[in-house]
Amino acid sequence: MAKSDSTPKSDRRAVADKLRKQQRRGEKRRNFAIVGVCLFIALLIIGAAAFQPISSWWNLRQYADASVADIGASADVCQDVTTKPADGNQDHVPQGTPMTYPDSPPAFGTHWENWDGFDSKFYTAADRPELGMLVHNLEHGYTIMWYDETVADDSAQMEEIRAIADKFGGSEDLRNKFKAVPWTSEDGDPFPEGQHVALTRWSTGNGPAVDAGLVPQGEQTGAWQYCSEPSGAALDEFMLEFPYTDSPEPNAV
């Protein structure tokens, strides 16, 4: 015969109520713990997102009073300027047309009908315009500083490139037609061995580069200068030899 429970109903009810209260307190503690963990993770995400801009701003302060020529390595880290006859002037194709170029990186050629805006001077692989747009910028007289993945993985060199690009911001002066952009393995062949930065221009042979013997008078020419690392000094000289006026469409922004 089963043994009967002699515990009074009031006592059993009190025990049940106590257990329910303990359970509710335990659930509250777990909920608070979950909320706390979520808040902690959110703070970590916000902090990580804010760290890079703040860190970049802090590190770039050292260049505040420097000229372009003072940033990065000396000009002797760069090779001599090389050139070849250019084509593609006014040869526009619809936006989105896949573009490949025989040179790494391009200095001229067929390009998209739209181009990248004047205000943006620095890009990473995450936000860089397509090649078809950038070649149109070259047609408008922009100097482009391309950097490869070796430089992209070097935080010190990236700070130098960002600092150089910053010097061309904040002004509507067309002499500031400059962009620093990445060149990736998906874009084409690598730069020459040991070279990780390239300066490119689309010249019409109507500027100081003619007097320097770099390009022929009155002929459209692509110009390259490869460097082993970023050099503001080399860029400064390159842009003096190839001003924006020496381009197929100098007055287009």
Question: Can you characterise this structure?
Answer:
InterPro entries: DUF3105 (IPR021454). This is DUF3105 domain-containing protein. Pfam families: DUF3105. Keywords: Membrane, Transmembrane, Transmembrane helix. The protein folds into two domains: 9-61; 69-241, no CATH class. It is an alpha/beta fold and 253 residues long. The chain has helices spanning 9-60, 131-139, 149-152, 155-166, 208-211, 232-241, and strands at residues 82-85, 92-93, 111-112, 143-147, 178-182, 197-203, 221-227. The strands form two sheets. Strands 1-7-6-4-5 form a five-stranded mixed β-sheet. Strands 2-3 form a two-stranded parallel sheet. It starts with 8 loop residues before the first helix and ends in a 12-residue tail after the last helix. The longest helix has 52 residues, at 9-60.
Give the number of helices: 6
Coarse morphology:
elongated
State the low-pLDDT regions, or none.
Answer: none
> What is the end-to-end distance?
100 Å
Helical fraction equals: 25-40%
Q: How would you spell out the order of helices and strands? A: HEEEHEHHEEHEH
Structural class: alpha/beta
Strand content: 5-15%
Any idea how many domains? Answer: 2
**How much is the radius of gyration in Å?**
30 Å
- Average of per-residue pLDDT values: 90
Number of strands: 7
User: Major beta sheet, specifics?
Assistant: 5 strands, mixed
Strand order in space, largest sheet:
1-7-6-4-5
Keywords summarizing the entry:
single chain; 253 residues; 7 strands; 5-stranded mixed β-sheet; elongated; 6 helices; two-stranded parallel sheet; 2 domains; alpha/beta
